[in-house]
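Sequence, please.
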């Protein structure tokens, strides 16, 4: 019935952006890239352990490869083998869609019990 703001201005968070890719993965929320207010694409990764109330930038172990272009508006899928698949995306709001598919996963999620 009513929305309320759960975070405050002191929260260490990401800048305003559009076209992010968001998913639940490994029992957390993950946010990938997007395009900021300056129309610049990002290739950072953020994780929330509390359903999106607070976010932390992931900058070790879970990172995009050097060749991955910053982008927004990617489509995202997590498959039954715990791979995250990112399709397409745009380098800015007026760019053409990229013709790329990227995949990755947290290694421990690939081991069978």
């Amino acid at each position: 019935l009513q929305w309320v703001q759960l975070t405050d201005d002191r929260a260490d968070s990401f800048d305003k952006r559009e076209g992010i890719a968001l998913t639940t993965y490994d029992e957390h929320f993950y946010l990938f890239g997007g395009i900021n207010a300056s129309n610049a694409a990002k290739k950072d990764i953020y994780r929330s352990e509390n359903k999106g109330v607070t976010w932390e930038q992931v900058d070790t172990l879970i990172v995009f490869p050097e060749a991955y272009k910053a982008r927004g508006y990617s489509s995202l899928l997590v498959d039954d083998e715990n791979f995250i698949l990112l399709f397409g995306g745009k380098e800015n709001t007026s760019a053409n869609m990229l013709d790329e598919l990227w995949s990755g996963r947290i290694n421990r999620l690939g081991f069978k019990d």
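The beta strands are 17-18, 21-25, 28-36, 41-48, 56-58, 75-78, 84-87, 101-104.
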